[in-house]
Design goal:
Number of strands: 0
Number of helices: 5
């Protein structure tokens, strides 16, 4: 489903997904929820499957939500650190001035 992510149709699509997959929705939105079945709790494997699924279904915004909600999980914190280091390294070669400006402005 490749479409405008701000469209009402896309919003309905995401909400239908959340209704059908309500246990995963709860896993995504509620860290450490005791009512989520053990096999659906957020782990690196569950997150990998969800990321692949969301990307395939053009629901990439839910990847950002999931990473933000679970940012305190050690495996997510490690992932975000590695990702930011890699992205900074890639940009540094061609855009070091821009990287420095952004770092300073975000502080």
């Amino acid at each position: 489903m490749k479409e405008n992510k701000t469209s009402p149709e896309h919003a309905r699509y995401v909400m239908r997904w959340a209704g059908i997959h309500h246990k995963y929705w709860r896993t995504i939105c509620t860290p450490n929820d005791e009512f989520v079945p053990e096999d659906m709790r957020m782990t690196p494997d569950v997150m990998k499957r969800l990321i692949q699924h969301f990307h395939k279904k053009s629901m990439d915004e839910l990847i950002i939500v999931m990473l933000t909600v679970h940012r305190n999980e050690p495996f997510v914190s490690d992932l975000l650190s590695k990702l930011s280091n890699r992205m900074i390294s890639q940009l540094w070669n061609n855009e070091s001035e821009t990287v420095i400006e952004r770092i300073v402005s975000y502080l």
